[in-house]
């Protein structure tokens, strides 16, 4: 068996893997991107498509802002706009306690230089007459945006391929190990790859790769129930999210409203399925009509979910392995990987090419799972516990 | 529709032909504000298409549509009521007082009111 | 007796569902019969809506007896079953159906589920097929039976189906001018299928009689036709095609009824857990069942929604599915009718395999379909959009990925209409056998449901 030698192998053809491949190729590295199915098919392709900046984990702002600048440049970068739309994001509160929470989020956002508009009930009624009186306050972040997740990953992978990346689809990594001369990977179809650097961007399946190097993270699969309505006249411009987590929605210019609801539902990474229980669809429908009553007669035409990797502290693993030189992890994006995707890819390429990145990534080290990890407050309300509890 | 070649009708007549008579109560309804008559038991689709050549304008291609499968599968015959309800014309019976609009009531969305 | 408490739910009140309900009721069960329609009968045995002076004897001809018997049996059953018309099943989870009736949400729990959701026309797009005035062949018949309406004044019938000639005769009887009956399959195809068609000689003879009647009435009949376009600006004005001898013809008309046989409505069976296999004879993905219709634990499929067989086969398979339910509940009757029903069903389905051979799905024409023709009428996605997406570097091959990139099959009908054509176009473009590009997966809701449906306590 002949081994294919390359500089970097990336396991996982999702958004993270594709962007990492793209930026490494721009730095002249020879890259093989290995994907067990087809590029962009899992959570990278089935997520809500939000490029939200406000309300993120505080330690993520440098990375997020760096990523947003890349999104704003996406057409320049990869030659495809992918329906990128700087529509802004409206974070809404249903009561005073939630309003205070929004104010805290806003203070963090503003400390990182993000412009936030603070809106009261009267502002909301004037600016968004379609919102019900249930929303009493909101913060609006004009720099937040959306894009079409179904299009982005294939487009980035295509751009990476044009820069010389070898994209290998329908190829499952069975074994990966570190030898003196570098990494050796063996795949289910009998191929083998050798490389100096290995990137584990295998999404909900990344735990298995980490384990091959004696490293673990309490990763579990889940998916947000999502649905889309029939098209009707375009009137909802920013994407809207309730800070209580019940509903997040946006309308695309074609007229369809897309919704993601909580709690997230159990997913099955072995059978590759993330079915949406009807009760979740109904709950999401109720929450949406409570916020936008004009939608009550519009029809839901399709529901779906995708398999995402989650970690109990609701932040991802990004950075070097603690056990193996040359191995880098980027997984467990907990439902917010879409926005930071290009930033993560750029940072990984810098770590591999330069040995470090200017963007602070310490909070995302896999080292944190050596000790006890604090569960995020969102954890209990955003999942169906039987599926999520570990 | 604005004149033109609609196949069914030079003189604005309907696309469908009522070939078999029906003994039923006459009901009045409106299509895009214009008064119309049908018989109880008529599907909304038949009630509209016996007097007009088309049902609705398509969202994306801008062309007009008159339904297709006529049995509730293709979802190509949804019309609106003035109050904003969605009605699948081929499976909805016409009822007295219905106010049908063939274009979405855009104003309703702009102001965000659920009804009226 | 605990088994008697078992809740059996049947979805679809066509011949399969009604026969299943009858057998269960005869055993003392009170099945719930859920149907989206306003009146029982399904599509083929659709009843005239109230007050319509339609003579079904004339319209149904030799089949009128079966039509009347089924509706009479249904009427006699009504007080022994829980019949729920106007009820759309949109989702399923844990032996519970989620339904919407009159704009309100309800759920129905079940121990055993018989899915008898029927079929719709299989459609091959051609230039002009989305014009107002083009309808499915089944739809053209449905609107005649149910509403007493003709879809136009000068009607052309196009496709590959024995129902072309039946529908044309019905239209003619009720006063339409039938300007052409254009069959895309050839006389040779029919000869090749004769051995299988001989399985049910009576039905074969009926088909020949329809054609003879049309000939006598001097209705222009064409076979081996290559459709070129349906013409018109804002509605149909003509059908253009090449006849079997290669002459191009243009026939003025104001309506076209289009159909290439039937495809099963399998979306509910899929959400309920049925597995699918590709059937090369029909060139369709069909749910996998045993000979009595078992498709999984507590899941039974019957009628055209399980395998295309026609109304007689639907009755037989409905009866078999109900007997399978009874058998699995431990309620066996002394006289076992199943062997006879199985033989009958096999014979009827063999006949349908013959029909699929005689009236061929136009694979080559779909492969050649011109780039500007819309394939998905919901989202307006053209054949060219599909091919361009596939041609892109790392472009999709599987139809679900094609859907993700192009939106073909993503609209209100969820690919019911465009799915079979999409498969052929994708397979031809990839140079693969059609089964290699997969099938569009079903997703809830099975049909659109309004956001404002309110939850209701279970009845």
From TrEMBL, chain A:
<feature type="domain" description="FAD dependent oxidoreductase">
    <location>
        <begin position="7"/>
        <end position="351"/>
    </location>
</feature>
<keyword id="KW-0560">Oxidoreductase</keyword>
<keyword id="KW-0472">Membrane</keyword>
<keyword id="KW-1133">Transmembrane helix</keyword>
<dbReference type="InterPro" id="IPR006076">
    <property type="entry name" value="FAD-dep_OxRdtase"/>
</dbReference>
<protein>
    <submittedName>
        <fullName>Sarcosine oxidase subunit beta</fullName>
        <ecNumber>1.5.3.1</ecNumber>
    </submittedName>
</protein>
<keyword id="KW-0812">Transmembrane</keyword>
<feature type="transmembrane region" description="Helical">
    <location>
        <begin position="6"/>
        <end position="25"/>
    </location>
</feature>
<dbReference type="InterPro" id="IPR036188">
    <property type="entry name" value="FAD/NAD-bd_sf"/>
</dbReference>
<dbReference type="GO" id="GO:0005737">
    <property type="term" value="C:cytoplasm"/>
</dbReference>
<dbReference type="Pfam" id="PF01266">
    <property type="entry name" value="DAO"/>
</dbReference>
<dbReference type="GO" id="GO:0008115">
    <property type="term" value="F:sarcosine oxidase activity"/>
</dbReference>
UniProtKB/TrEMBL annotation, chain B:
<dbReference type="GO" id="GO:0016491">
    <property type="term" value="F:oxidoreductase activity"/>
</dbReference>
<keyword id="KW-0560">Oxidoreductase</keyword>
<dbReference type="InterPro" id="IPR036010">
    <property type="entry name" value="2Fe-2S_ferredoxin-like_sf"/>
</dbReference>
<dbReference type="InterPro" id="IPR042204">
    <property type="entry name" value="2Fe-2S-bd_N"/>
</dbReference>
<protein>
    <submittedName>
        <fullName>Putative molibdopterin-dependent oxidoreductase YjgC</fullName>
    </submittedName>
</protein>
<dbReference type="Pfam" id="PF13510">
    <property type="entry name" value="Fer2_4"/>
</dbReference>
<dbReference type="GO" id="GO:0051536">
    <property type="term" value="F:iron-sulfur cluster binding"/>
</dbReference>
Automatic annotation (TrEMBL), chain C:
<protein>
    <submittedName>
        <fullName>NADPH-dependent 2,4-dienoyl-CoA reductase/sulfur reductase-like enzyme</fullName>
    </submittedName>
</protein>
<feature type="domain" description="BFD-like [2Fe-2S]-binding">
    <location>
        <begin position="375"/>
        <end position="426"/>
    </location>
</feature>
<dbReference type="InterPro" id="IPR017224">
    <property type="entry name" value="Opine_Oxase_asu/HCN_bsu"/>
</dbReference>
<dbReference type="InterPro" id="IPR023753">
    <property type="entry name" value="FAD/NAD-binding_dom"/>
</dbReference>
<dbReference type="InterPro" id="IPR041854">
    <property type="entry name" value="BFD-like_2Fe2S-bd_dom_sf"/>
</dbReference>
<dbReference type="InterPro" id="IPR051691">
    <property type="entry name" value="Metab_Enz_Cyan_OpOx_G3PDH"/>
</dbReference>
<dbReference type="InterPro" id="IPR007419">
    <property type="entry name" value="BFD-like_2Fe2S-bd_dom"/>
</dbReference>
<dbReference type="GO" id="GO:0016491">
    <property type="term" value="F:oxidoreductase activity"/>
</dbReference>
<dbReference type="Pfam" id="PF04324">
    <property type="entry name" value="Fer2_BFD"/>
</dbReference>
<dbReference type="InterPro" id="IPR036188">
    <property type="entry name" value="FAD/NAD-bd_sf"/>
</dbReference>
<dbReference type="Pfam" id="PF07992">
    <property type="entry name" value="Pyr_redox_2"/>
</dbReference>
<keyword id="KW-0560">Oxidoreductase</keyword>
<feature type="domain" description="FAD/NAD(P)-binding">
    <location>
        <begin position="7"/>
        <end position="317"/>
    </location>
</feature>
């Amino acid at each position: 068996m002949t081994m294919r030698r390359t500089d970097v192998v990336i396991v996982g053809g999702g958004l993270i893997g594709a962007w990492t491949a793209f930026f490494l190729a721009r730095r002249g590295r020879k890259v093989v991107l290995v994907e067990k199915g087809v590029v962009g098919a899992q959570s990278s392709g089935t997520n809500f498509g939000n490029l939200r900046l406000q309300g993120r984990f505080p330690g993520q702002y440098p990375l997020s802002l760096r990523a947003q600048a890349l999104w704003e440049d996406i057409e320049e970068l990869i030659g495809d706009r992918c329906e990128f739309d700087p529509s802004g994001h409206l974070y809404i509160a249903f009561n005073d306690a939630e309003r205070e929470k929004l104010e805290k989020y806003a203070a963090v956002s503003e400390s990182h230089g993000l412009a936030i508009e603070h809106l009261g009930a009267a502002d909301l009624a004037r600016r968004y007459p379609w919102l019900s009186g249930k929303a009493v306050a909101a913060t609006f972040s004009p720099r937040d945006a959306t894009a079409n997740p179904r299009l982005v990953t294939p487009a980035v992978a295509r751009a990476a391929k044009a820069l010389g990346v070898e994209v290998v689809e329908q190829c499952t990594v069975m074994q990966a190990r570190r030898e003196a001369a570098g990494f050796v990977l063996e795949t289910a179809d009998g191929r083998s790859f050798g490389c100096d650097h290995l990137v584990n961007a295998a999404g909900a399946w990344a735990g298995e790769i980490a384990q091959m190097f004696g490293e673990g993270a309490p990763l579990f699969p889940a998916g947000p129930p999502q649905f889309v309505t029939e098209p009707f006249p375009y009137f909802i411009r920013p994407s809207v999210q309730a800070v209580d987590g019940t509903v997040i929605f946006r309308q695309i210019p074609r007229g369809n409203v897309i919704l993601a609801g909580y709690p997230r539902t159990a997913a099955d990474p072995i059978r590759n399925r993330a079915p949406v229980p009807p009760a979740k669809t109904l709950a999401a429908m109720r929450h949406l009509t409570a916020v936008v009553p004009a939608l009550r007669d519009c029809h839901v035409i399709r529901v779906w979910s995708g398999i995402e990797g989650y970690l109990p502290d609701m932040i991802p693993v990004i950075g070097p392995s603690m056990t193996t030189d040359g191995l880098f992890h980027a997984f467990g994006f907990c439902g917010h990987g879409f926005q930071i995707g290009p930033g993560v890819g750029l940072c990984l390429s810098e770590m591999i090419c330069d040995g470090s990145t200017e963007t602070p990534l310490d909070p995302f080290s896999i080292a944190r799972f050596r000790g006890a990890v604090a569960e995020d407050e969102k954890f209990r309300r955003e999942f169906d516990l039987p599926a999520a509890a570990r | 529709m604005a004149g033109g070649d609609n196949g069914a009708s030079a003189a604005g007549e309907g696309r469908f032909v009522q070939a078999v008579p029906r003994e039923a109560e006459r009901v009045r309804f409106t299509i895009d504000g214009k008064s119309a008559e049908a018989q109880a038991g008529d599907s909304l689709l038949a009630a509209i298409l016996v007097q007009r050549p088309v049902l609705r304008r398509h969202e994306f291609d801008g062309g007009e549509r008159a339904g297709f499968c006529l049995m509730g599968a293709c979802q190509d015959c949804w019309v609106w009521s003035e109050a904003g309800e969605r009605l699948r014309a081929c499976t909805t019976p016409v009822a007295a007082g219905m106010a049908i609009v063939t274009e979405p009531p855009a104003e309703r969305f702009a102001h965000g009111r659920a009804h009226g | 007796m605990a088994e008697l408490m078992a809740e059996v739910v049947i979805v679809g009140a066509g011949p399969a569902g009604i026969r299943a309900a009858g057998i269960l009721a005869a055993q003392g069960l009170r099945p719930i019969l859920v149907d989206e329609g306003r009146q029982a009968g399904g599509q083929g045995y659709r009843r005239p809506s109230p007050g319509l002076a339609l003579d079904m004897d004339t319209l149904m001809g030799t089949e009128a007896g079966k039509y009347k018997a089924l509706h009479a049996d249904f009427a006699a059953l009504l007080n022994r079953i829980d019949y729920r018309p106007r009820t759309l099943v949109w989702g399923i989870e844990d032996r519970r159906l989620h339904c919407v009736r009159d704009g309100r949400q309800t759920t129905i729990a079940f121990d055993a589920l018989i899915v008898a959701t029927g079929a719709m026309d299989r459609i091959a797009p051609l230039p002009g097929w989305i014009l107002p005035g083009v309808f499915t062949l089944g739809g053209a018949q449905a609107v005649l039976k149910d509403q007493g309406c003709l879809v136009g004044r000068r009607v052309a019938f196009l496709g590959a189906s024995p129902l072309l000639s039946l529908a044309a005769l019905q239209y003619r009887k009720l006063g339409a001018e039938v300007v052409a009956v254009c069959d895309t399959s050839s006389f040779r195809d029919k000869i090749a299928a004769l051995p299988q068609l001989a399985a049910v000689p009576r039905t074969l003879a009926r088909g020949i009689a329809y054609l003879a009647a049309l000939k006598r009435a001097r209705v222009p009949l064409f076979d081996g036709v290559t459709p070129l376009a349906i013409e018109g600006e804002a509605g149909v004005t003509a059908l253009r095609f090449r006849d079997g001898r290669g002459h191009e013809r243009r026939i003025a008309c104001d309506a076209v009824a289009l159909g290439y046989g039937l495809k099963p409505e399998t979306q509910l069976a899929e959400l309920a857990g049925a597995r699918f296999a590709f059937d090369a004879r029909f060139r369709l993905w069909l749910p996998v069942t045993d000979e009595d219709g078992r498709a999984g634990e507590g899941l039974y499929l019957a009628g055209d929604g399980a395998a295309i067989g026609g109304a007689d086969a639907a009755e037989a398979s409905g009866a078999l599915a109900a007997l399978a339910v009874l058998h699995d509940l431990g309620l066996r009757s002394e006289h076992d009718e199943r062997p006879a029903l199985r033989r009958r069903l096999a014979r009827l389905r063999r006949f349908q395999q013959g029909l699929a051979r005689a009236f061929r799905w136009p694979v080559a024409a779909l492969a050649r379909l011109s780039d500007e023709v819309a394939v998905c009428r919901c989202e307006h996605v053209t054949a060219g959009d599909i091919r361009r997406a596939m041609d892109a570097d790392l472009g999709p091959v599987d139809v679900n990925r094609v859907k993700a990139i192009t939106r073909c099959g993503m609209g209100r009908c969820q690919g019911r209409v465009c799915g079979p054509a999409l498969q052929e176009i994708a397979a031809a473009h990839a140079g693969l056998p059609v089964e290699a590009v997969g099938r569009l997966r079903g997703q809830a809701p099975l049909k659109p449901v309004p956001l404002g449906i309110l939850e209701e306590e279970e009845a």
